[in-house]
Amino acid sequence: MSAAQLPPWPPAPPRWGSVLLRQVQEKDVPMAQEMSADAYIPQIGSLPPHADHRQAREWVQRQQTRHEQGIGFSFTIADAGSDEPVGHCGLWLKEISAGRGSAGYAIRPSARGRGLAAEALLALTSFGWDIPLLHRIELYIEPWNTGSIRTAEQAGYAREGVLRSHQEIGGVRRDMLLFAAVRP
Ligand SMILES: CC(C)(COP(=O)(O)OP(=O)(O)OC[C@H]1O[C@@H](n2cnc3c(N)ncnc32)[C@H](O)[C@@H]1OP(=O)(O)O)[C@@H](O)C(=O)NCCC(=O)NCCS
């Protein structure tokens, strides 16, 4: 889809509980570096493992082009009070013409254990329903990833099944659980 067809950036940051979703900014580079040291995050996105400052900055810059490229909305999850970055999430809309999108999320290791991913996913999903064309948001989660499964459940997503050998992660074909939310 061309960039012109993507809905505009939300005029106010989507919020839920203690988080808001805003543009990825230069000041998020240290968070990107912290997330790049996580064992799993570099396997499921474009952040290189143990990124140096330049690589983390390039990741930030890539996120800043996702909307204009028509790929979707790439958000920093920030503390609603301090604006400090606590993670990243995206609403990916390459299939918006079919009424579908997918979402992904990660919390920086030092901010985990407070249910922030579920709050971010609730904010992201609520924002998604502001997009008239969007009827269904999908999540693809590895069966071992209990933290992500709980996040999906807490945000109201329903488990729909197992997609066997769905994609390659870390050089290995992986089964993925399909979770989805549909427009209320
Ligand atoms: C998944 C992730 C986003 C969750 O972050 P978070 O919001 O800080 O999650 P929390 O630590 O608050 O845990 C949320 C729930 O999962 C449970 N959980 C978290 N890690 C768990 C684990 N390793 N084993 C079992 N349960 C776990 C918690 O107990 C909590 O459940 P509860 O609310 O029923 O008590 C975070 O772990 C992360 O960034 N992981 C790497 C990236 C990733 O996997 N992204 C998702 C790809 S599909």
TrEMBL record:
<feature type="domain" description="N-acetyltransferase">
    <location>
        <begin position="19"/>
        <end position="181"/>
    </location>
</feature>
<dbReference type="InterPro" id="IPR000182">
    <property type="entry name" value="GNAT_dom"/>
</dbReference>
<dbReference type="InterPro" id="IPR016181">
    <property type="entry name" value="Acyl_CoA_acyltransferase"/>
</dbReference>
<dbReference type="Pfam" id="PF13302">
    <property type="entry name" value="Acetyltransf_3"/>
</dbReference>
<protein>
    <submittedName>
        <fullName>GNAT family protein</fullName>
    </submittedName>
</protein>
<dbReference type="InterPro" id="IPR051908">
    <property type="entry name" value="Ribosomal_N-acetyltransferase"/>
</dbReference>
